Amino acid sequence: MDVLEDSSTSSQQGEKISNGNNKNNTLIKEVWTYHHEKIFIEWADKAMCYRWLHNSAHIDYKCYNTWFTIPVICISTVTGTANFAQERFQDDMKSLVQIAIGSFNIIAAILTTVQQFLKISELNEAHRVSSLLWGKFYRDIKVEMAKSPSERNPPSVLLKHCKNEYDRLMEVSPIIPQFTITNFKETFSGKRRSKTIGNRFRSLCCVSLSCNDDKGDYMVHETEDDDESGLSTPMNSKKSNIKHRKLSEKEKIEKMKMAFEKIHKPEICDELVSTEETRFKLGPNDYIEDNSVEIQLIEARKQRELIGATFVNDFSILNGREPTFIEFKDGVIKSIQKEFIKVDLYNKSVRELKGPVLA
User: Fold this and answer.
1) Which of 142, 133, 161 is nearest to 42 (CA)?
2) pLDDT tens, 155-211?
3) Sign of the dihedral through C-alpha 191, 197, 198, 204
4) What is the C-alpha to C-alpha distance for residues 351 and 11, in angstroms, rounded to an integer?
5) What is the C-alpha to C-alpha distance for residues 300 and 214, in angstroms, rounded to an integer?
6) In angstroms, rounded to a whole number, what is the distance separating the alpha carbons of residues 37 and 162?
7) Dihedral angle over CA of 339, 344, 348, 354, nearest 10
């Protein structure tokens, strides 16, 4: 993805700049935190959902396109052949044949016009492309999150480019139909699997309530007859295989439900999450990280003060006086970044010899 290529280029340029500076210069490196990863995980989850939704919509529209196109092809072929064979019909049948051919031509024209009006072919291709783009976006974030934090691109650069890519995909992607959204929720919430023919027939039996109540025990435990017999017959082994199959099916549905509840779903899936849930909140680990950054800043400030005091002391020994601010600035410019050379630093350095000098 161009996003990650641009971000890697930016990080390489940043490393070159930092390596070119003096070793005493203090450049604080960006650190990956839990909150950065939380943002990317949410985007990756939504991208995964959008990929499935657009792919499902592409399959549906491809089916619609087939059902609109094949009848038109068949009707056009039959009517075209019938036009050449009109003279072979009897005179009393020619009028009926012409009416039939005209009717079929009208039906084919109506189907073609409806297909063009609904833009089935365009939507089919648009959903296919969107599915590929969302899948690529999801895989790129997934690979980036799988890396060690020290091997990743800087979080600020990656955030900027991924946000732009996410917004672009939201703009160019076609609207997902409601039946696809309903299919998505029913598939991953386990509702679709329960709508089988066996369950429908089971709900019609007179003891459906007792069957549903004891279904969990039926899957896990064997019957008392099997325990009493203790014989491994083909019938018992077949029943055991059926029970294990039903148990594995139930476990798959439960895992699917848990994964569906855990992921971040798009807002189009009737999911409304308050902004309060995404507000930045500090945790214990964040306090430790903030303290470490603060300690780095304090150590860097002390290092600058030490360099300034050393220069003032050496200058006063050689010249018998304190340096002016301009002389101080020219003397420490090679060891301290320009933006940190201020009057406050000069005053603190001079105080080591004789009190405040410059107000």
Assistant:
1) 142
2) 889 999 999 999 999 999 999 999 998 888 888 776 655 444 344 333 333 333 333
3) positive
4) 41
5) 70
6) 13
7) 130
Alpha-carbon distance of 86 to 134, in angstroms, equals 54
DSSP assignment of 27-58 equals -PPP---HHHHHHHHHHHHHHHHHHHHHHHHH
**Residue bearing tokens 């600035």:** 329
Would you state the structure tokens that stand for residue 290, as one six-digit string?
Answer: 């903030």
Residues with Cβ within 8 Å of 329's Cβ and at least 6 positions away in sequence, in order, are 341, 346
C-beta contacts of 24-30 below 8 A and 24+ residues apart: 24/303, 24/307, 24/335, 24/336, 25/336, 25/337, 26/296, 26/297, 26/300, 26/303, 26/337, 28/293, 28/296, 28/297, 30/154, 30/155, 30/156
Rounded CA-CA distance 162/141 in Å is 9
Amino acid at residue number 105: N
Q: Domain-by-domain residue ranges, the chain?
A: 2-176, 191-275, 284-354
- How far apart (Å, rounded) are the C-alpha atoms in residues 196 and 193? 6
The overall average pLDDT reported for the chain is 75
Confidence of residue 329 (pLDDT cuts 50, 70, 90): confident
Quote the CA–CA distance of 100 and 121 in Å, as a whole number: 29
Q: Write the pLDDT tens digit of every residue in 274-315.
A: 666 666 666 555 555 556 677 888 888 888 888 888 888 888
Torsional class of 232: left (φ above 0), alpha (ψ -120 to 50), beta (otherwise): beta
The pLDDT value recorded for residue 53 is: 93
